[in-house]
Every structure is written in C-alpha cells, then in structure tokens.
Design brief:
Blueprint: H1 3-10, H2 16-43, H3 48-55, H4 59-66
C-alpha cells in the first residue's frame, strides 16, 4: 500500500488526531504534485493562463504561487 493510499484511508478515521495528520499529508502531496505539473506545463510552453484554466484558478493566483520557481 502506498503512502498516499494509507493517508487517504486514514483521512476518514474517527480519531481526529489520525485524520488531521492524514489531511496534512495529503495536502503536502497535492502541493508537490501541483508544483511538478506546473513545472512540466511551463517546460512544454504552456502559458500561465492555460495552467490557471486547468487548475481552475486565476492566472494571477497561479503566477504568484509559482513565480518563485523562475518559470
């Protein structure tokens, strides 16, 4: 079983300590995956607007979040 699968299962725990730790782990995984895919998209020539549309957020929000990557 992968860490992501275990975290997803733990997120529905009736123990709040377990469930909340799992939520944090899943949020961190999501952030890592999003950064990876934004980097991939920029490397392939996607505009900030295309990325924003795919993520369903504003162009300004995605640019602000990822400009530190120097993309």
């Amino acid at each position: 079983m992968s860490d992501a699968t275990a975290a997803a299962a733990a997120a529905s725990s009736t123990d709040p300590a377990v469930g909340l730790r799992a939520v944090v782990a899943l949020r961190e995984l999501q952030d890592s995956l999003e950064e990876l895919q934004v980097t991939n998209a920029r490397d392939q020539g996607w505009s900030w607007q295309q990325i924003a549309d795919a993520l369903r957020i504003s162009r300004q929000a995605v640019h602000k979040k990822y400009r530190r990557l120097g993309l």
